[in-house]
TrEMBL record:
Name of one Pfam family that matches: Glyco_hydro_1
Gene3D superfamilies: Glycosidases
A GO MF label: beta-glucosidase activity
Active-site residue list: E391
Assigned keywords, A-Z: Glycosidase, Hydrolase
GO cellular component, one term: cytosol
Protein name: 6-phospho-beta-glucosidase
Amino acid sequence: MNTTTIFPENFLWGGAVAANQCEGAWLEDGKLPNVTDALIGILSKNPSVKWDEEKQIWEIALDEDKDYLSHIAVDFYHRFEEDLKLMSEMGLKAFRTSISWSRIFPRGDEDTPNEAGLLFYDRMIDTMLKYGMEPVITLSHYETPLALVGEYGGWTNRKLIGFFDKYARTIFERYQGKVKYWMTFNEINNAFRMPYAAAGVISFPPSDPKEPLKDIDDKAIYQACHHLFVANALATKALREIDEDAMMGIMCSFSAIATYAWDSDPENVFGALEFRRNSWFFSDVMCRGHYPGYVKRIWSENGTEPEIKVGDLELLQENTSDYIAFSYYRSAVYDKSAEMKVDTGGAKGFDNPFLKEKSPEPWSWPIDPKGLRYVMNELTDRYELPLFIVENGIGLDETPDENGRINDVERCRYLKMHLEEMAEAVKDGCELLGYLWWGPFDIVSAGTGEMKKRYGFIYVDRHNDGSGDLHRQKKDSFNYYKQVIETNGADLEIKI
């Protein structure tokens, strides 16, 4: 496919990471724990916390037998200048990361921000700008301060709206004119399957401390979602007041939108629709500005309607998003007889017999570049808003060979196939702001909390057992992505 004239000159080729997966320094310069600091991986249903009966709060309680790799991660906190310089050598036009909420308001409910945390992000953002990269910033990437969960009940408590509003306004005022692209909550549509990480919701303590936490009821999660929606609307309103040149986007995991019916059985076709609505619900509210009818039916039939205060619905209607940021990794197939499982890559049902390639074991994610084009068209048809691909990539288990080389041609092939389909979607009429590869250097895996699953164009010497000297090393894909960016997507030929 010839993409010579497809992408505009200002197209944002870049990379994306998250503070909790790369920074480390988890208790440095005044920072206190956030929700992911108490997890090995975000898919875990049992965070490392304990219930203090006397204080009636949850507190962090790390397990000495577990390795919390994210506490050091890849030490981006101390090495960001080196890493951003490498990103600039690759030609990145944009770099996405998150601001760790608990670096700025360590508990989340303070009156004044932590200046040391702000100074760190001053340096980081200024370094991005020095190297010609647009900062793309997420305000909370699974990073709700733990104290807001342990003492307030997380986003089920309406007080968090005010805490988040103060945090967002502090950040917008600090970086006015420096950051053009913002997102509030990373993959907000994961609130139901990962309520602790995505919505800061934790269940009541079990009667026996050795027993696992009970599942959280849907009514509580819908309430948390409503508060998240109101907080998103207020942040959007605040940004427009403070920096009218900046844009606020939603951020959803939209691999699930590429969920195909197994066959033409109407039960499977409608079942796939209902499964997809689990994600549409979030973007419908934040992009259209109101709750859709299908959700109101669920509330009515299951008694799960959240409490909605006077003025909330007007806020949602008046403060919809400027663009849609999303992640895409793979597609899925729905069948009424199969259990649909979801992990960090998206949904998994029946194997799709028409897809011939998977990522290598042990993850074995189906590779479906056409699914990306499908999702982009679906989003454009539904919302007619600019799109921003802020996560796409492939995790591989890799180590340097005897010559110190990492020949990751599989990564290059995955990238090439998805860029080809992305170009076709632009031809289809999709307005695309940019493409950010997840993650341009190796970081701690979100889902499993390990280093073994590597996404980067740059190898970081750290391993699942915590060993490694953290040195950075270019993989062969580094030069391939550099080639893609230098030619603005015109030359996708793999020459390694």
